[in-house]
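Expect sequence, tokenised fold; for instance:
***
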Amino acid sequence: MKSELAARPDVSGLAMIALYPTAEEAGAIFTAGGNPAETIHVTMVFLGEAANIDMKAAARAVGSVSGSTAPLSGKVGGVGMFAAGDDGYPQLAIPNVV
């Protein structure tokens, strides 16, 4: 019996600061049956309801950090899976970043 993921919840009103890999990097860590490669990301901070966030202040904070921080590099050091939720079993890759 093939299991299928439930319909993905609407997250359009939520905000996060995240890093997205290049298409090549996403393809290298994509797992068949997992989340689509184009949705692979590293959540740096979950901000909650977008309507409650000062987006200009958030953009300034990200700009300040990104302008003074060296690029990240590393490899996948492990994999895991979140507990079942409304959208199935989200997978995660645990980065070893320097």
